[in-house]
Amino acid sequence: MASSLLNGAENLTLIRNITPSPKGLGFLRSDLNGIKFSKLKSVTHAKISIKSTKHRITHIPRCSISTSRPASQLRFIQHKKEAFWFYRFLSIVYDHVINPGHWTEDMRDDALEPADLNSPDLTVVDVGGGTGFTTLGIVKHVDAKNVTILDQSPHQLAKAKEKEPLKECKIIEGDAEDLSFETDYADRYISAGSIEYWPDPQRGIKEAYRVLKLGGKACLIGPVHPTFWLSRFFADAWMLFPKEEEYIDWFEKAGFKDVQLKRIGPKWYRGVRRHGLIMGCSVTGVKPASGDSPLQLGPKEEDVSKPVNPVVFFMRFLLGAMAATYYVLVPIYMWLKDQIVPKGQPI
Ligand SMILES: C[S@@+](CC[C@H](N)C(=O)[O-])C[C@H]1O[C@@H](n2cnc3c(N)ncnc32)[C@H](O)[C@@H]1O
């Protein structure tokens, strides 16, 4: 059963059906190399279903919540200014270096499937839309003139502007944590591979809730945290790789209902998740009432108007960029393993 689960691992969907408890919520661990479900601390009773096209298994763990990682961890590029400069340079090669290793067209289409892009007339916002790679998947289903790409990096947006299928999209600069759209504006909120740079991800998800219309759907695609120690070291030095349970928690706190998480990953990883994934899951939630999110938040985590110490900034940028290099090597390593290890065996 474990091997057949492994085969279906890329298409797994994690569905929440959880009995509320004042003590916490129930979750699964994301290390899928051996599909481990049991290393969870006992907190509460929760019912979790994992669904693939072939299998549906319901676990009722005795337990479970893993605590969020402390905000004090390094994450050198999980800052707006550092991310701005990171993409100043990465935008030059982004479509050629990042996408083939971490974010392929089939992964993108798989990740967008839960967003229910079921009409060309939908109003869609693509937040952290960058060079428009995900937007290219959106405009397969939705009329480009109804789609807005928002990003804080003009350098990334310049690449999106060059793409013919995106010519009719609105393309604007902005901050994911402080969106310029009015409340109850969009039918769909999409954000792929951007949350990892937001200093305050909960604030960004609260904004997703606000800008959606009643019954609108948010689809947030992002990384998952590694369990292998070396990968965890570099991931945590680079940026935010949330745990699956953190995504679900942020969505629920923002007020979303019917929160679901679908696991994604490059085919040649054969479902392995121990190194983490830069695009590892697609989380969706439905807005149940019009207006702003019921969640109240304090002041912003990062005030971009405040001056920064240039030496500290430079060191953060340099160390973060060096840590990111590790994640250029991981997909190559996994690809080689996939070529060498006989099919059907775990890698
Ligand atoms: C990995 S790229 C993803 C681009 C695109 N969504 C895709 O699927 O290829 C991350 C993008 O998030 C943007 N970004 C980071 N922090 C942001 C913020 N606070 N507000 C808006 N965009 C942000 C970056 O500029 C970058 O273009």
Automatic annotation (TrEMBL):
Region (SAM motif III): 210-223
A single MF term (Gene Ontology): methyltransferase activity
Presence of keyword Kinase: no
InterPro entries attached to this UniProt entry: Methyltransf_11 (IPR013216), MPBQ/MSBQ_MT (IPR044649), SAM-dependent_MTases_sf (IPR029063), SAM_MPBQ_MSBQ_MT (IPR031164)
Single GO biological process annotation from the record: alkaloid metabolic process
Record-linked PROSITE patterns: SAM_MPBQ_MSBQ_MT (PS51734)
Transmembrane residue ranges: 313-336
Domain MPBQ/MBSQ family SAM-binding methyltransferase profile: 75-284
Pfam families attached to this UniProt entry: Methyltransf_11 (PF08241)
Region of interest called SAM motif I, as start-end residue ranges on this chain: 124-133
Stretch list, region SAM motif II: 169-182
Similarity field: Belongs to the class I-like SAM-binding methyltransferase superfamily. MPBQ/MBSQ MT family.
Protein name: MPBQ/MBSQ family SAM-binding methyltransferase profile domain-containing protein
Organism: Penstemon smallii
